[in-house]
């Protein structure tokens, strides 16, 4: 007689090895829907760009690279933020599910992430030296998340305060 537990365990192991998970499939579907929307948009506005799809930290990420795409970024990424929301709406219409898809154009978000991580580490050092809380400038949700993650990784706490569009991160000393 076989052990039912080992049979169930082997079935689960086979399922995990046999293909992508339901989450991966959903994220790939989000990426494909976003790519279709963005390709059509690029055609309409007559811009050249290649679309790269990836899955990063349980989130579909779509990057548009190449050509002269800075007009799709706008001042301080405002056009990019709006384009990301439009892309998420297109994904919702296609898949029927809300998306946390992250869009980057011309490497703007990647570069901004590097700048914010540096700024966060400088703030951490300042707070450690002074022992005082340090409020940073207004940031969009993507930017705040990057700063919160960097501050936590450096061993301090942070919180967001204020109302959009003036919401910002405050780096806090250890208690």
Briefly say what this structure is:
It is built from 5 helices and 6 strands; from the N terminus they run H-H-E-E-H-E-H-E-H-E-E. With 175 residues, it is an alpha+beta fold.
Write the layout of secondary structure elements.
Blueprint: H1 4-18, H2 22-44, E1 50-55, E2 60-65, H3 78-95, E3 102-105, H4 108-130, E4 134-138, H5 141-153, E5 157-161, E6 168-172
Give your account of this protein's structure.
The protein is an alpha+beta fold. The chain folds into 2 domains: 4-106, GMP Synthetase, Chain A, domain 3 (2-Layer Sandwich), CATH 3.30.300.20; 111-172, Ribosomal Protein S8, Chain: A, domain 1 (2-Layer Sandwich), CATH 3.30.1370.50. The protein is built from 5 helices and 6 strands, in the order H-H-E-E-H-E-H-E-H-E-E. The strands form 2 sheets. The protein has a 3-stranded mixed β-sheet, with helices on both faces. Strands 4-6-5 form a 3-stranded antiparallel β-sheet. Strand 2, helix 3 (78-95) and strand 3 (102-105) form a beta-alpha-beta unit. Helix 2 (22-44) packs across helix 3 and helix 4 (108-130) crosses helix 5 (141-153). The longest helix is centred in the N-terminal third of the chain and has 23 residues, at 22-44. The N and C termini lie far apart (59 Å). 25% of the residues are buried.
